[in-house]
Amino acid sequence: MENTNKKRKMTVEKVHTETAPKAIGPYSQAIKTNGVVYCSGQIPLDPEEMVIVGKDVKEQTAQVLKNLTEVLKAAGTDIDHVVKTTVFLQDMKDFGDMNEVYGKTFKSKQPPARAAVEIAKLPKGALVEIECIAVLP
Description:
alpha+beta, 27% strand
């Protein structure tokens, strides 16, 4: 019997934009492969100054989502095509405030799947970090 499964060539493309913070380590802002975009976690950095924006979790969440939106745009997709997010919080007591801002961004009838976890510490003293997976339109 002949094997009819042909190996597909996987292409991997680095996504980079100047309108979102540059990577602060050896990683990409996002990777695009096989119609899927994997965005690295974004913290609330101003892309030009590379300093934390916002004093509370609401302001920081808004900046994080703005940064993710810019990375998604550079990848050829948008926030409406996000299928999964992971939210990292410095303190779970901030969940309600984060969720309020998050809900204003992901307001479609079919919001993405999500996990939210409390962690010990985030880079640069951020209160929130969000990563996401999106599909290309």
